[in-house]
Amino acid sequence: MKNAKFILTSALIVFSLQAQAGLLFNYSQLTTKDLDEMNQIVESKVKESKQSASGKHVPLKEALQAVFSRPNDDDMIDKVIAPLRASLDELDYWEKTISQLTDEAINALKNPNAFKPVVQSTYVIFLENLLSELKPYLKNQGFERQIAERIRDAKIKVPERAANERRLRTMKSTVSPSEIARKILAEAQQAAPESSTENKDSE
Question: What pTM does this model have?
Answer without folding.
Answer: 0.84
